[in-house]
Amino acid sequence: MAFIAQDEINKIRSSASIVDVISSYIPLTQRGKNYFGVCPFHEDHSPSMSVSEEKQIYKCFSCGATGNVFTFVENFLNVSFAEAVEIIAKTVGISISMPLSSKKETKFKEEYALMDFVLKIYQNNLNTEVGQRAIAYLKKRGLLEDTIKNFSIGLSLDQNMLYTILSKKEYPEKMLLDLGLINQGKDNLYDVFQNRIMFPIHNLEGEVVGFTARCYLKDETPKYLNTKETYIFKKGSILFNYHRAKEAIRLQKEVIVVEGNMDAIRLYSVGIKNVIALMGTSLTKEQIDALKKLRCNIILMLDNDNAGESATLSIGNILEENNISFSIIRLSGEKDPDEYIIKNGVAAMQENIQNAISFVDFKLNYFKKNKNLNEASDLAEYIKAVIDGLKNTNDAILKEVTLQKLAKDYNISYAILKEQLGDRESKIEKKPEKKEQVIENHQSSYNKVCSKILFYMMHSKDFVKLYQTKLGIFPTKEHRIIANEIVYYLENHKTIDLADFISYSENTNVKNEIMAIICNEKEEILTEEEMLELLEIIKKKIKKEEIKKLKEELKSEYDVNKKLSLLEKIAELKMEIEKEV
Fold first, then answer.
1. Taking a C-beta distance cutoff of 8 angstroms, is the pair 25, 40 a contact?
2. What is the number of H-type helices and E-type strands within the chain?
3. Other residues' Cβ atoms within 10 Å of the Cβ of residue 547
4. What is this structure's pTM?
5. What is the DSSP letter of 153?
6. Which residue, among 355, 330, 356, 424, has the nearest Cα to 386 in the 3D structure?
7. How many CB atoms lie within 10 A of CB 417?
8. Helix axes 435-457, 528-555, angle to 10 degrees
9. Alpha-helix residue ranges (DSSP H) falling in 506-580
10. Rg value, the chain, Cα
11. Mean pLDDT, 10 residues at a time, the chain of 581 residues
C-alpha cells in the first residue's frame, strides 16, 4: 500500500477514537461498553453495527462488515486505504512523513505520467485553428465549454503530431506502442488517433489509462475508436466516470448505469452527477466488485434498441445472481440517454429516473415480445419464461405479487402457478451433489477449524506461541501465508493488536482472506486447552494426508525393502493418530 512505516500508521490509528470518527458519519448510541448504529454497508433498518472503543474495531452482526477506523472510512467514502489513512491523519492533526500511494500507482508511475502528458497535448490542440472546428462540433452536439473542460475533452491532429512531440521528449517507442498511442507501419511509426475528438478514460482511481476517439470532420468507420487493451487499460475493469461520480453516488445512495461515454457525459453535464458508463453491453466480475463497493441502488438505463434490451436482461440476471439491488429504465422514442435529454429535456429524464421499474416488471414485458398471448402455446411459453425468471430472486413478496398478477391477468389457477414455481425451485435446490461438492463439504469443516485457529491467533500472542510450538505449519497454502503474516507481525511488534493488524494486512496478498476470517468468526472465550484441541485436529489432518501420500507411493513401488519401509511409516502414523484419540 504505502511507503509510510507501519508504526506510523499504527500511531495515526491509535490517536483516533473509532467512536468519534464513525459517529461523525452515522449516529451511534452507547449500550454497555459498546456503541451501536445503523450499518451503512447494507440495507439496515435497526442498529446492527457494534463499535468497540476498547478494541477500536467495528462489526455488523447482519452483513458481517468489520474493520478498524481506516477500513470504515475507506468503505464509507469509497476511497483507497491510503486515502483513508491520510483523512484520519488530518483529522487527528498528524503530518505524514511521506505521501501515500498504492502499489498500482507506484508500479505504473511513468505510464500514468505519460498518459497525463498526452491528455494535455490533446487538450491544447483545441486552442489551434483546427481545434476551433472541433469545439464548434462539440457545441453543436450540445456540450458547453464547462463540460469540455470538466471531462478534459481534447483533439488529436494529423501528420503524426503526437509521435513527433513524444519522440522529441525521448519517450521509449516500446512504451508508446504498448500503451496504444502509436502503431508500427510497414516503414514507419504513426499515431493511432488522428483527426478525432479525444475523450480520456480514467481507471477507478482517476488515472488516465486510455481514450475514446470520435471522428468529427467526416463520417468514418468506426465512428468511435477506443485505445486497445493494454496492461493499464483493461476495458472490463473500467467504469467510465466512476472516479468523478462516486461522491454524488455516496450522497444519493444511487447510481445510474448507462452504456456509452456520451450518455454519462450528458447526464453529468445537466446535473445528474451520479452516473457511470459500462463502455459497452457486458458486465465483468471486476465491474461487479466495483458496483458492490458503492453499496447503493443501481438504475440500469441502457440504449433503446434490441441490443440494449437484450443486455438489460443479461446484466439484470448477473446483478440478481450477485444480490445487488437494482431497477430498470427503458427509454422510449430516442436511441440512448444522450439523445433523449437533447430532445425531451432534463425534467423528462428525471421523471424516468423516479419511475424506474423492477427487474420482474421488465421481464414481464420482455417475454411478451413476438408472442400472441391469445394463442395457447405462446401464452404457455410466456408463463413458463416468467416463472423461470422468478427463480433467482429471494424476494418472497415479489414472487407472490407476480404470481397473483399472472393468475388475474390470464385467468390461470394461482395454485398451478405456485406449484410450477415450487417445482422449478426444488429442482434447482435438490440437484444431486457432484463428487466435487461432496469433497468441498468435507473440506469446509476442516477450513472452519483453520479459520478459528487463525482468528484467535490474531487476538492473542499466547495462541501464536502455541501454534508455533504445537503445530508450526498449516497444510494448505492460504492458511500458511496468513499464519506466517501473524507470526511476522508479532515478531516485529512484540504484541498482537487486532485493529493494527487489520491495517498491516493491507500490505499482504491475503488481505481479503484475513478480513473474511475476522468477519465470519464469532469472538468467544477460548481456553488454552480448547486451542490445543483445535491444533490437534490439524495435526491429525496432516498425518492423514501423509498416509494418503505414502499409500500412493506404495502402489508404484516395486522394491521390497522400500515397500516395507513405506508400510512401517504408514503404521507409525496410524499409531500416532490412535494415541491422540
1. yes
2. 27, 15
3. 17
4. 0.65
5. -
6. 424
7. 20
8. 140
9. 511-520, 528-555, 560-580
10. 29
11. 74 94 90 90 81 93 89 84 89 76 63 95 94 94 93 95 93 95 92 96 94 90 92 94 91 92 96 93 87 88 93 92 90 93 96 94 90 89 87 78 88 88 58 45 71 92 92 87 92 90 87 87 84 88 79 75 75 67 47
Instruction: Classify residue 566 as left (phi > 0), alpha (psi -120 to 50) or beta.
Output: alpha
- Give the three-state DSSP class for 378: helix
C-alpha cell at 423: 417445482
Nearest to 51 by CA among 3, 8, 16: 16
Phi and psi for 35 in degrees, rounded to 5? Answer: -115, 150
Nearest to 461 by CA among 428, 505, 438, 494: 494
* Dmax (CA) of the chain: 90
What 3-state DSSP class applies to 2? Answer: coil
Contacts of 564 (CB under 8 A, 6+ apart): none
- 413 class by beta-carbon count within 10 Å (0-12 exposed, 13-18 middle, 19+ buried): exposed
CB 386 within 8 A of CB 367: yes
- For residues 4 and 1, what is the distance between their CA atoms, to the nearest angstrom? 9
Instruction: Report the 10 Å Cβ neighbour count for 576.
Output: 12
Domains of the chain, CATH where assigned: 6-101 (3.90.580.10), 106-233 (3.90.980.10), 242-356 (3.40.1360.10), 365-429 (no CATH), 443-580 (1.10.860.10)
Residue 191, beta-bridge partner list: 182
For the chain, report the end-to-end CA distance as a whole number of angstroms.
45
